[in-house]
Fold:
Amino acid sequence: MKVSELGEFGLIDLLTGMISTSQNKSAAAYQNLIIGIGDDAAAWKGDSATQLATTDSLFQDVHFRLSTTPWYELGWKALAVNLSDIAAMGGVPEYAVVSLALPPDTEVDDVKALYQGMIELAQRFEVALIGGDTCRAPLVSITITVLGSARDKDGRMLTRSAARPGDKIAVTGALGAAAAGMEMLDKKLQLDAESSRQLRQAFLQPEPRVAEGQQLVALGVKAAIDISDGLISDLKHVCEASRVGARVEVERIPVAPAVRANFKDRALALATAGGEDYELLFTASEEKIAKVKTALSCPVTTIGEIVAEGPGNVVMVDAHGAPVDLEKSGWEHFGA
Ligand code: ADP
Ligand code: MG
Structure:
């Protein structure tokens, strides 16, 4: 059946049914919910904590292609990128509203798959889907707004502006797999089954580091960003906001093994400029980072340090501290 046959209200009813049967009613966000889907706006009882809001849109043929992105993964990713922004503040995601634009000939089953992906991730992080909007458009777009709060009672958060000279720079997980996955799907590259699975998952179903962001706050970390544009670009955002410089030791960058194995000379380019990994980059004293490494269940790698010189600049260096020209190391191939 097409969306046009079901109609806007029929579709909303169907999605509301999916959401209400699948979501965990004992989660805190639900306990505080007064009005969910069905009225002109949702309502919930806020506590006095610091509140957070973020929004991100995915547009067909700008951010995704339907030829390479299954609907389930699209729903997952649309919510994941928003949860990642809350993670990068060290916050707790609580509520999500979804604005959906669909061509009238979209299959209802595809929209159901989209919501299944979204619901799966929402359940995992106990986020309540409390409303949205549905309209027709020539192409698909999904805009999600996530509301949350700072768990910390003093309202401590992770910000881009809190990096200080002397801080070390660290990242969670490994980098480059999402960009490699996109390229693999776009160019229909044939890789071994395990690499293919890993890269595909990194690109289509990123895991937002929500728990890790909250742990960073608890351990006293103050500066962080999520890697959406790419390591260099996002670190530059931190440097600009904090008015500091950064030195990154190229050899230390944790390039995902499947990227190293399959994209040899371009692996570093994918890891530094590829983006969409949704890992957290943070800065803190060496002692704090040592504690983070013990506390977090994911890998944490120190890749460099924050310096006072060259505010807003990211410099790549080798193990001896000599500047590295990334263009000559294959970075240019990326076409950044
Ligand atoms: P209005 O005309 O006031 O905008 P709508 O008919 O658009 O109301 O929406 C009716 C209810 O359904 C609202 O509670 C709205 O939040 C919810 N809703 C609409 N579209 C979606 C969607 N795509 N996902 C989740 N909830 C939706
Ligand atoms: Mg509406």
